[in-house]
Model the fold of this input.
Amino acid sequence: LASFLPDGWQAKARETGALRRCRKVPDAPTLLRVLLIHLAEGCSLRETAVRARQGNLVALSDVAIMDRLKGAGEWFRWMNTELMKKWAGPGPTALGQWRWNVRVIDGTRVKEPGPTGSSWCVHYSLGLPSLACQELVVSEPNGRGESFTRFHVRAFDLFLGDRAYGVRPGIVYVCRNGGEVLGRFALSNLPLVTRQGQSFSLLTHLRTLTATQRGDWPVLLKDSSGEVPGRVCAVRKSRPA
Done:
């Protein structure tokens, strides 16, 4: 595995602070092996500690491994970025001349191992084009589910989300706090009106599109606090799609 890693990856462990003291973890390869037992094999921290000790790697507690993992985030990010440059080619340094801070938002459910069967929702914000984690929230599954409202909004944030996020409370929340939203939405989940205050019939507008036309219609999204201007953009799917 080490032969695939970028040049200088061991020295980078010290530079980024992942490897601070070598009293129990002698070098970067050992640290990487221990952390990958947890990350790649899916072992719990306690099982990782047992495997590392039985494999004569290191004698660390599960708490100590967690501390090492927390300190290795920038090291792993650097290695992943360098690997992407090598195998996938250089990515864009910026998305055009935009002033926007583009944030891809998504969520997933993680089931806890063991007899309790507890599950948790992980809400994640990924930056473009850096692919760096900007914000992470863990919640119980019986809360308000996937929503833009779980994240902090700054001026010029552009939130991207799938249909789960195409609902009025989340969109209004982002726009009221200085951001913008670009996302999909379901036919019935987003009540829209025209600039004249009439109900916007989505299907009526979609049926006017031919195979080569693109739809682009101004709309308003209203709630008790006022209205948010927006656009509905659409393109007809091809027959194979």
